[in-house]
Design brief:
single chain, eight-stranded antiparallel β-sheet, about 15% helix, Rieske_2Fe-2S, iron-sulfur
Length: about 375
């Protein structure tokens, strides 16, 4: 290294204990694009922070911290106004302070001409927001000043074409880590989801699936459908399935039936350290989805079964946070923890992310 060259960052990051801490410097699913109306202001809570998500009259999505720095009123209770220069600002409902979609203060109506106050120094935090395939994603930076910018576009999913056929949401009263592990757990289905239309604990079989590393996650490579899940029966043909996971908490099941396809995307969005929204979105060009009113209750019932188990698990977590992981059934959960550690370390050390997942064939019974 030549004299005067900057020294490389060597920050050491202590990994957060499982069930604590939330990833930063990544995109989180916030809403469907159709839910963010033109000139509308809507309040969300994400990662323990109040977030206003809106859309300008020109159609651009933006996100701001939903707290006016003057008297802490929610900006989302105000309105979108036009400035003399054509830009748009959010007007606080309390005293009319206005903030541009970049977070900068544009006006304080109570000021008189003789009062010298540099309002350009007053800001609310701006969260980078972007749309992808009819969904709105918000970037949460690790920069304590909120000045970090995305270094990658929001995720893109195969088969997310057109309007969704089914959208279901549910709040799990648990930390995101527990929600993610429950989502990817391959052996709970015969017990948690036992029903006439799903598998049964009495009909378990040996399973063998191959996994490969994927972008910030891993992929269960394409394989024939599970015969235990009768929901696939409505699709007919010979469905083949590929299941992917990526940080911070997105899992999608891409089903191919000849030239037809189904995409079942599940996004986990932390509200707080102890509350997580699970959003499941289904797209398809398959004619079976003319039966959407019949299919939708099964999707919701499936989510509720997971939610009920999370609430039951919370009873045990009140007394003991230590968890026992085994191979191969819990390998995906181990990968998730390794991915989180590497993501956090790579960001802190200013280096590229190196996926710790290695190709493997896993075996379990379910």
């Amino acid at each position: 290294m030549a004299d005067g060259d900057p020294k490389p960052r060597t920050t050491t990051v202590a990994p957060a204990r499982f069930g604590t801490g939330l990833l930063r410097d990544c995109w989180y699913f916030a809403a469907l694009s159709s839910e963010v109306k033109t000139a509308g202001l809507k309040r969300y809570e994400m990662l323990g922070e109040p977030v206003l998500i809106g859309r300008t009259r020109k159609g651009e999505v933006y996100a701001l911290r939903d707290v006016c720095p003057h008297r802490a009123a929610p900006l989302s209770a105000g309105k979108l106004t036009a400035e003399p220069d054509g830009r748009e600002s959010v007007e606080c409902p309390y005293h009319g302070w206005r903030f541009g979609t970049d977070g900068g203060c544009t006006a304080i109506p109570s000021l008189v001409d003789s009062q010298d106050l540099d309002i350009s120094r007053i800001k609310v935090r701006r969260y980078p927001a972007a749309e992808s395939q009819g969904m709105v994603f918000v970037w949460f930076s690790s920069d304590p000043r909120g000045e970090g910018e995305p270094d990658e576009p929001p995720p893109v999913f195969p088969g997310a074409v057109g309007a969704p056929k089914i959208v279901e949401r549910m709040v799990f009263e648990t930390h995101m880590d527990h929600a993610v592990v429950g989502l990817m757990d391959p052996t709970h289905a015969p017990y948690v989801h036992e029903a006439w239309w799903a598998r049964s604990a009495k009909r378990q079989h040996d399973k063998e699936k191959h996994f490969e590393p994927g972008p910030a996650g891993f992929v269960m490579t394409r394989h024939p459908r599970s015969k235990a899940n009768r929901i696939y029966d409505i699709l007919g043909g010979q469905p083949e399935v590929e299941i992917s996971f990526r940080l911070p908490g997105m899992r999608w099941e891409h089903i191919q039936i000849g030239r037809r396809q189904v995409l079942a995307l599940t996004c986990l969005t932390p509200v707080t350290d102890s509350s997580t929204i699970i959003t499941q979105i289904l797209w398809s060009d398959h004619p079976a989805f003319i039966l959407t009113p019949i299919i939708k209750p099964f999707v919701r019932a499936f989510l509720k079964q997971d939610g009920d188990m999370v609430n039951l698990q919370n009873e045990g977590l009140r007394y003991d946070h230590s968890l026992l992981w085994i191979d191969d059934a819990d390998r995906q959960a181990k990968w998730y923890q390794a991915l989180k550690r590497e993501w956090t370390a790579s960001r802190a050390e200013g280096r590229p992310f190196v996926n710790p997942v290695e190709a493997a064939t896993l075996r379990w019974k379910s």
